[in-house]
Every structure is written in structure tokens, then in C-alpha cells.
Amino acid sequence: MSVTPQPAMPKCWRVESKPHKFCPGCGHGLVLKCLGEAIDELGIQDRVVFGCDIGCSLLSWDFFNCDSVQTHHGRTTPVMTGIKRANPDLICIAYMGDGGGYAIGVGGIVNAAARNEKVTVILANNTLYAMTGGQMSPTTMPGQKVETAPYGRDPEATGMPTQGPEMIAAITGAGAYVARGTMANLRQLKSYIKKALQNQIEGNGFSFVEALSACPTNWRTNAEKTWEFIEKEMPKYYKVGELKNPFEAKKEAQQNG
Ligand SMILES: Cc1ncc(C[n+]2csc(CCOP(=O)(O)OP(=O)(O)O)c2C)c(N)n1
Ligand code: SF4
């Protein structure tokens, strides 16, 4: 009898909710795969509370075999902060899009970051409001055509794209972990997410990872153009790398005696 090979899934993924509900080619599934593998490797599934926002991220409400909560738009960080403060042994993960995190939820993120709350925020930046049909978001790039800017984003009228990790790195104290990864480099993205979780496990401070993510449906791109956008267009405005790494800082301090 032949056995149909099954795709490898993280152990903490909820098999009953797969195949998932994202569009083909969507970046959310890849970011959540990195998160799932990081949870597995750290052995923290029983301690995780996963919170997702409104927007396409909410399609992950039943993604994991972990305690999960779906919040009002932009309110995931404060909800996770409350749960963490009530039970510091839990590992609280807030998952959202750029609209939820940098527009309607920016107050939640900025204040949690400024207080160095010991939660982990993972934000999928796909440069627009995807779930509602592709409107301009804070991370839409200059010249990028979206539903509410059909001639392209004009920075004179609407400003330059929000640089989330750069902003959060500037306002967090010692012990914060801040990075920007991309779905074009999943190994690296997973390592950033793993460090962001490890940082929470050690109780060092706020942890934040932005992931450059694709929305082929609203970008109206085929597979080739999607990769071109992710690999060539997004890095023009969004630099991939670690901005704050308390593990490195600790190592350097030890080396310097
Ligand atoms: C308070 C409030 N305002 C507006 C909306 C409508 N709304 C639902 S999803 C969404 C955009 C989500 O965009 P983003 O957070 O970037 O996530 P994505 O869908 O791109 O993953 C908006 C504006 C809402 N649900 N609640
Ligand atoms: S609309 Fe975009 S972000 Fe939403 S599920 Fe589809 S591809 Fe993903």
C-alpha cells in the first residue's frame, strides 16, 4: 500500500486547521511556519499564548495547538501584555500586520516597547491593508500603487514609510531584541524569531521581529513578480538584519571584562 507523503509541519501546528486559509503565495503561512518551528525547538508549546490581530493575521486564530486569542484590531500587544503581567511564566506572542501594528495599534506597540514589556511581537509587513482590499498602510512604499493611491504613494502628501524596527530599537531599553527578517530568507527569519522568544524566556525585555511578507492577491503579482517585489523592491526601504541583540551585548560585555 502506498502512503501519500505529508508536508512537514511544525509539531505545535494544529493539523485539523490545515490546509490553512491564506491565499496561495501568501507570506503569513511562511512566517507562522518559522514561528512554529521556533516554538518546537525551544520546547515551549505548553507555555505559549498566541494572540492574533484583525486583518489577514486573524486567519491564524486556530493555527496552533496552543492557547490562542484573537483581539480587536491593533490591540494584540496590550492584550498580550496583560496576560504576561498576570502570569509571567507564560510566553506571550502577539501576531499582526503592518496596519494593525503601525496604524491603529501603534499606541499599543510604542507604549509596550517604551516600558520594555516582556512580550514578543511578530509583525508581517506586506505594505498594505490586505484583508480589506489593498488600501495604503504606513509601510506602503513611495510610488507603490495601491487601492487608495492608484497613481502610487506620494511621500509629499502622505509621508515616508514607517520604519517599525528602527523606531522600536530607539525607544526600548537594555534587554530588548529587535530585528527585521524576510520570507525570502526563512532560515534567518526563524533564527530571529527564536531569539525573540528566547529573550522573553530569559525575561530580558521587549522582543520585536518585523517580517517582510508577500500579498500576491493585492499586489496583483504572479509568482515571479512576487519574488521580485520581496527581494528587490522591499529592501530598498526595509533593511533586513538585527537592530538590537541583548545576547551579543552580553557577550561583548563579558569579553571586555
Ligand atoms: C477599529 C477597526 N478599524 C478598521 C477595521 C477594518 N479593518 C479590518 S482588517 C484591516 C486592515 C488590516 O491590515 P493589516 O493589519 O496590515 O493586516 P493584513 O490584512 O495586511 O495582514 C482593517 C482596516 C477594523 N476591523 N477595526
Ligand atoms: S489577501 Fe494577501 S495577506 Fe491576505 S491571505 Fe491573501 S495573500 Fe495573504
TrEMBL record:
Its EC number is 1.2.7.3. Residues 62-210 form the Thiamine pyrophosphate enzyme TPP-binding domain. GO terms for biological process: cellular respiration. It comes from the Bacteria. The keyword Cell division does not apply. Gene3D superfamilies: 3.40.50.970. One of its GO terms (molecular function) is thiamine pyrophosphate binding. Keywords: Oxidoreductase. It is an enzyme of class 1 (oxidoreductase). This is 2-oxoglutarate synthase. It comes from Desulfotomaculum nigrificans (strain DSM 14880 / VKM B-2319 / CO-1-SRB) (Desulfotomaculum carboxydivorans).
